[in-house]
Design a protein that fits this description.
Length: 224
């Protein structure tokens, strides 16, 4: 093989390797980190964070920590892909109104929503999903949440200020608030942190698996 052909081959391999590096990312190790910095690390890479609460009693834990991640560290992914972070919760689920979940960032320099000159402007605000577990109670109601909107419009945290009375609905409201995005609030021309009110409504809808004209057959083993 001539030197020129060898040089061209090396150039092609180099460009291919560069293209692979430019189009894909390596997922960092996030297990053991606090949620705030793990979220920031993913955002810096152009990846999307999604949070799932670990169903264990972690009442003695004082920090929100990443306990699992999917995909695992070292996996190849692309900008815009989602990384699911399992996190612990310091406290029982019913204490949403006493807990901030899940990003424990710097809460200083927060301006009251009612005093800020220019409040955050919602960009993406989703409705909260109806928890399947509440269908058995035919629950309809509301949960009033607040999202802590940071200087760049990212949501740092969410909390419940008026509970629905059901932990599952409050949890759904908090998780939905965390996925919101905003244009940041401004006070005297400077971006500020502010708690933004987000009311969520839950409407029970009965499942209609069978047409009204179809009667379910009674189990003969059950008493009439």
């Amino acid at each position: 093989m001539s030197p020129r052909v060898t040089a061209v081959s090396c150039l092609v391999v180099t460009l291919a390797a560069f293209g692979l590096a430019a189009d894909s990312l390596t997922v960092p190790k996030l297990v053991g980190q606090d949620i705030y910095h793990a979220h920031r690390a993913l955002r810096k890479l152009g990846l999307v964070s999604r949070f799932e609460q670990v169903d264990v009693d972690t009442a003695k834990v004082t920090l929100f920590l990443v306990t699992s991640q999917v995909p695992d560290s070292g996996a190849r992914t692309e900008p815009g892909d989602t990384v699911v972070l399992g996190f612990n919760h310091p406290g029982m689920l019913c204490y949403w109104n006493q807990s901030v979940i899940p990003l424990l960032g710097d809460f200083e320099n927060t301006v009251s929503f009612y005093k800020v000159q220019k409040p955050p402007q919602p960009i993406v605000v989703e409705p909260a999903g109806y928890p399947e577990v509440l269908k058995q109670y035919s629950f309809s109601g509301a949960a009033d949440a607040e999202a802590l909107v940071d200087f760049d419009g990212a949501v740092l945290a969410a909390r419940i200020v008026r509970s629905s009375g059901y932990a599952a609905a409050d949890s759904s409201a908090c998780a939905t608030a965390l996925r919101g995005s905003f244009a940041p609030a401004e006070h005297f021309g400077q971006p500020v942190r502010v708690w933004f009110p987000l009311p969520y409504y839950f409407q029970f809808k009965e499942d209609k698996a069978l047409p009204n004209s179809v009667k379910q057959i009674r189990d003969p083993t059950e008493p009439p």
